[in-house]
Amino acid sequence: MEFDIKELLDGYVEEEIELRPRRSPRPERIEALVRAQLEGAGAPVSRPRPARRLLRALPVAALLACLLSVTAYAVSSLLSERVYTRSDTQGDVVLNLGTPESAEFQAAAEWERRLMELMESGENDGGSSDFPEGSREALYAQNGAFTQAARDALDEILDRYGLTMAARLARFQEPEELYALTGTAPFLPPLGALGRDPSSSEPQILRPAGTLYEGGSLEYACTALLSGDRTVPYELTLAANGSFIRGAGIFTRGDDFEEWTYTVPGGPELLLDLGESRAFVSARLEHGAVFLFVRCGTAPHDEDTDSGRVAAYSGFALLDRELLEELASSFDYAALDALCVFKCDPRVP
Amino acid sequence: MDDRQILSGLRVGDSGALSAAIERYTPYVSAVIANQLRRRGCREDLEELTANVFVALWEKRGSLRTERLRGWLGAVARNQARSFLRKNRLLTVSPEDVLLVSSDVAQKLLEKEEARRLLREAVEAMEPPDREIFLRFYYYEQSIPEIARDMKLKREAVKSRLRRGRDKLRARLEAGGFPYGV
């Protein structure tokens, strides 16, 4: 009887040996493939999911009308304009960039649909994936374009909408790092407690993490400490006018949203949407648009879901109108607007 | 993000944690797969199999019980590559990879998990350099010249230590009731 030593090592966990990669694919390339697979399966990955082939043939207005006619996934009126596509299991997907009529939103939605076509036809395969950091090719790769055909397609969309790709300037964790990078006074609410993993004895699970882009666009996931020591987890996306970043799609999970407008004294008019498991705040600024995705809602945390379990164990607050308005009021929108015209400080690496 | 933060993020469905894992471990995962494929797959196969590992990570995030992300990814990557080779009838077994046992212990060996356990114990009992050479050869499927290059050893030294590792493995398995030979 024979046994293969290599087969007997299946499942062996090796952790110490350093392997020297020969020619590794670029992580961005792998991430694009992973997301394509997961989104194709309807998995809840926070990236825009392109419309299906049949739906792509429909004009955008007809597509939106079609989506809105599905009452099980219906969202409130103005939020519905952000609906980008639909998931069979997670509800509508809203895009977190700009405002629905803006070039930033339209271009991002169009690019994601075009990108899926390119991937399906193989036109985004086969190009080099090994680009020097800071090169033009690396910038295209950051947005998912790996071949000349894909780069040309992205260029065509960006030219049509008058947008410029924004390079990633820096990643950061604590708000203070961001303020130091941009040379600004604090403009975010105080950082709240970090989440706790119910299956771990370690106290921290959710750490703040953000990316600053050339031109002032910004992505930041963290928590806000509000009155009564209540903690609310949120993701902020600031899209500067004229800049292109890919953004993310957010599942509405079939929530019913209560929607209203609210004006911060001396600030812009905000659109607030409050659902059972999530909430959104959005506003058009003079030099860009801000979008907040709040990772909790009005319903008790559903401990049958990963995020609900963490929310419950972490003590994240349940939202009501008052608390959502308090969160929305805790940002300095003038400072966020000023960041949208941020010029790269040469000290920024 | 360190591994603990990545794993915690994955468990709560944070796609940023998946991105961090991809960014950090793509070189390692693709190296594990490339070593298995050698010339039996094209670049697209390498990319697809590498992506599959991270898809598996995301899909199993709710049930991940490991705190050792690198080891988990490496094991999955190796299995993905070997499954790919098996499926495409490209998996070959050389004589020196084979453990032969007599029929009187065959019944015991049918419990493959027992053989795996003994083999792992034998590996763990090796001296560090011998263990590394053994694992580079049998687990990561590096060639002897590659092992010599990466460990800054002469090829003959790699061969002799590999032979010594096999001898120790043989002794261990025989002690556990598994005669070993080729």
Q: How many angstroms does the end-to-end distance of chain B come to?
A: 47 Å
The largest inter-chain interface, given as chain pair and residues per side, is:
A-B, 59 and 71 residues
Number of domains of chain A: 2
Question: With helices defined by DSSP (H or I, 4 residues minimum), what is the helix count of chain B?
Answer: 9
Number of helices of chain A: 11
In the CATH hierarchy, the architecture of the largest domain in chain B is Orthogonal Bundle
Order of helices and strands of chain B: HHHHEHHHHH
Count of extended strands of chain A: 14
At CATH level 3, the topology of the largest domain in chain B is: Rna Polymerase Sigma Factor, Chain: A
Radius of gyration of chain B: 18 Å
Explain what you see.
The complex is a heterodimer of chains A (349) and B (182). In chain A, 30% of the residues lie in helices and 21% in strands. With 349 residues, chain A is an alpha+beta fold. Chain A folds into two domains: 27-163, no CATH class; 168-339, no CATH class. Chain B folds into two domains: 3-87, Orthogonal Bundle (Rna Polymerase Sigma Factor, Chain: A), CATH 1.10.1740.10; 96-175, Arc Repressor Mutant, subunit A (Orthogonal Bundle), CATH 1.10.10.10. Chain B has helices spanning 3-11, 15-37, 43-59, 69-87, 106-109, 112-125, 128-138, 144-151, 155-175; one strand at residues 98-100. The longest helix of chain B is centred in the N-terminal third of the chain and has 23 residues, at 15-37. Chain B is an all-alpha fold and 182 residues long. Chains A and B meet through β1, α1, α2 and α9 of A and α1, α2, α3, α4 and β1 of B. β1 (2-4) of chain A pairs antiparallel with β1 (98-100) of chain B.
